[in-house]
Amino acid sequence: MLSLAGIRAVAAADAAFSAKTSGRWRVFPILIDLSTVTAVLIGEGEVAARRLAALDEAGASCLDVYSQAPSAAFLKVAGKRFKGARPADGALRAAQIVFLAGLGDRESVALAGKARAAGRLVNTEDVKPLCDFHVPAIVRRGDLTFSVSTGGKSPGLARRLRRHLESAFGPEWAGRLDELGRQRKVWRSEGLEPAEIGRRVDVYIEEKGWLS
């Protein structure tokens, strides 16, 4: 149950967010190489464990992890990346991206405020006003990545669409992408222009019947 202070803190952040965005959140989708970006995860419980697993799946190799009450399983996954209960202000400023997960509202507001004041991008699990970016529903098939976002309006719809994509694009698509990548190298070595390569990709997919 939220404390009164927590309710007030989130309400204030929500009001500021609404005033800034006029109630509409316009985002620019990008893919970030987390092997080159310094990230910090601060969190508790299963929510933090899920976020850590997602970051590992995305190859977040420059990651520091903080938790006040980590489980043995969480510590095992975090390994040497676990740095203690909470980061010092200097460690927070040194990060480029900050993930907050499973924290109380009051602490989330405070940590997000510190990170933002240092010019860092923040994602706070399930608290849209405390997010500078959000993590969409993701389907991975090798190097092929699908992402679904509803701008925070309906996470349930995002999950449903993710399941649809998982069904429509099975594990075989990882190999199909690799096959197309090899074929593209051949076409480029032949000196073909990008427009012609794009046309040949369409023809190749049609001949294979991959989207039939």
Task: Describe, in plain words, how this protein is organized in 3D.
This protein has 212 residues and is an alpha/beta fold. The chain contains 8 helices and 7 strands, in the order αβαβαβαβαβββααα. It has helices spanning 4-21, 45-57, 72-78, 89-94, 105-117, 155-168, 172-189, 194-208, and strands at residues 39-43, 63-66, 82-84, 97-101, 121-124, 137-141, 144-148. The mean pLDDT is 89.
Topology:
Layout: H1 4-21, E1 39-43, H2 45-57, E2 63-66, H3 72-78, E3 82-84, H4 89-94, E4 97-101, H5 105-117, E5 121-124, E6 137-141, E7 144-148, H6 155-168, H7 172-189, H8 194-208
Q: Poorly predicted ranges (pLDDT <50, ≥5 residues)?
A: none
DSSP strand content: 5-15%
Q: Determine Rg (CA atoms, Å).
A: 21 Å
Largest sheet: 5 strands, parallel
- Give the CA-based shape: elongated
Short description:
This protein has about 210 residues and is of the alpha/beta class. It is built from 8 helices and 7 strands, in the order αβαβαβαβαβββααα. The chain has helices at about 5-20, 45-55, 70-80, 90-95, 105-115, 155-170, 170-190, 195-210, and strands at about 40-45, 65, 80-85, 95-100, 120-125, 135-140, 145-150.
